[in-house]
Amino acid sequence: MLLHAQSQGVIDGSPCGTTVTAYISVELEVLEEDYHEYVELEGHNVDKKCHLVQRDGQMVISTVTTVGQEETEESVSYPMSVLRGLVTEGSSLLMMRLIALRQKLPKNMSFISLDQRLQTSHTTFNELGLKQLEVGGDVLEGIGVQRTVHCGEDTPAVWQCYLLDDGHLASRMQVGSPVTMKLVQLPPKTEKSLEKIPLAWEEDLQMVSEFSDRKEELKADHASYLRQHPEIRALLSDFLLSLLLRKPDNVFQFAREYFLPFAPRRFPE
């Protein structure tokens, strides 16, 4: 499945934003992911891009960090056996959305993750309970999820997120940071209408060819069956002869009574 999430805002007059695009399997395994974050500061910009992709049994991670005019590239790879259960920015968003939809967070959720230095660490998820949130002038209830990325001997990085019951991320903040991202307005709901598209199969050469082949196949099969059972023609001829001689008003009732003796058992009246 494809996951795409984007947030934009302004911190002290400096534009900033985050974008994540990921391809994730139904088992929540990351197949490929692009993560991009930036801050446009006065005098210089900070830009970081990270790309993850599975290749030949390895997870290859490449980062490009740009601070002003200075650019730093880094690349590492790990066997997938080491990263089994890996949670990235993309898969963590999907996981939190599933938690919001179910309104329940299992206890002791811990996963493999990567820290800022691309070293393996682990991430834990804990429930923060329910909270009233103001979104677009309405007060809605959201469930809180705390995500903690443990970085060895360094101080863990902690994010607190609140999500609505439909899975929308309504609030996100990093503990220790004065900045809180909030959902200003819910996206408009679009009504999905399924328009029936007429099938003009007569204009499709491939479909016409398949139809003709199937038609000839059925005709040959039916003709073969009739040759193997000549009694069918005699039976139908007798029925049509009786029908034309008697000319009944109710043809179905006449056919029922005519073929009733051939039935292995009597039909209920």
From TrEMBL:
- InterPro entries the record matches: CATIP_N
> What Pfam families does this protein map onto?
CATIP_N
Quote the subcellular location field of this record.
Cell membrane; Cytoplasm, Cytoskeleton; Nucleus
**Can you name a GO cellular component term?**
nucleus
Task: Give UniProt keywords alphabetically.
Answer: Cell membrane, Cilium biogenesis/degradation, Cytoplasm, Cytoskeleton, Membrane, Nucleus
Ciliogenesis-associated TTC17-interacting protein N-terminal domain segment(s): 1-178
A GO biological process of this protein is: cilium organization
Under the heading PANTHER family, the entry gives: CILIOGENESIS-ASSOCIATED TTC17-INTERACTING PROTEIN, RIIA DOMAIN-CONTAINING PROTEIN 1
* Family the UniProt entry places it in: Belongs to the CATIP family.
Task: Relate the protein's function as given in its record.
Answer: Plays a role in primary ciliogenesis by modulating actin polymerization.
What this protein is called in its record is Ciliogenesis-associated TTC17-interacting protein
**Origin organism of this chain?**
Iconisemion striatum
- Chain's gene name: C6H2ORF62
